[in-house]
Amino acid sequence: MDPIIAGNWKMNKDPAESRSLVQNLLELISDVKNRKVILIPPFTSLPIVAEVIRNSNVKLGAQNMYWERSGAYTGEISGLFLKSLGCEYVVIGHSERRHIMGETDEMLNKKLKTALEIGLIAIFCVGETEKEKEQGMTEQVISRQLKQGLKDIENEAHKIVFAYEPVWAIGTGKTATPQQVVDVHKFIRAQLIKKKSTILYGGSVKPENIDTLMHEQEIEGVLVGGASLKPESFARIIKFSIT
Ligand code: PGA
Fold it and tell me: Which candidate among 23, 88, 154, 240 keeps its CA 20 to 30 Å from the CA of 52?
């Protein structure tokens, strides 16, 4: 399977900026094969990005969704709306949703269930904070996030893409070492009933470290934040080489 390179723009890029970023990126990666590139812009830029990537192999994803399909939930977005805009993927449980917006394991479980039901591929993020890492709790935390997040849907976990994103590595410039990532990826896989799920790494992925990360077979792709906001750096990440 082709490695996944996903760019999560977070709350950056208005529609005009989004158009220019994607146009520039597409030019830079026009010769790239054997990579699954997913762009994850803010909701407001989904239509414009969908339009620009229409004749390319690039896929579209959203950063979040609500678990109900429609109704009186002011300010929330239905996964069905995302599908109608051309999204194939949706990020669930990003650490910023968990830690800034207070999303709980139970809420994420509902979102994962809905994503599975409506046919959106969830990119489900798990990862420990710096404090939890220092206390030696990494496996305990990830095990809880997986257990509660996947409650009642354990048998369908192979339809979910997992992203190990240590909170201490997100936006900090501190990247986990390839060995740390491999160890946690193996731990995640061991927790899954079917071992086939794709597992990505995220946290300060940049042009300088992508080659060594992707050298590891266990790392099947990356979820990139900051470095996906510049076409040159994201194109370089997409064009990683492991030789
Ligand atoms: P970063 O973000 O690459 O800026 O560290 C990663 C993420 O939050 O997915």
Answer: 240
151 in Cβ contact with 211 (< 8 Å): no
pLDDT (0 to 100) of residue 10: 98
If you average pLDDT over residues 174-197, what whole number do you get? 93
Kindly report the CA angle at 42 between 38 and 43, in degrees rounded to 5? 105
Strand 89-92 and strand 161-164: the pairing is: unpaired
pTM: 0.97
**Model pLDDT, residue 195:** 83
Of the candidates 128, 165, 185, 220, the residue annotated as catalytic is 165
102: left (phi over 0), alpha (psi -120 to 50) or beta: left
Q: Which domains does the chain have, with CATH numbers?
A: 4-238 (3.20.20.70)
Ligand 1 pocket, residue 62 CB under 6 Å: no
Q: Whose CA is nearest to atom 1 of ligand 1?
A: 225
CA distance 132 to 145: 13
Q: How confident is the model at residue 202 (pLDDT cuts 50, 70, 90)?
A: very high
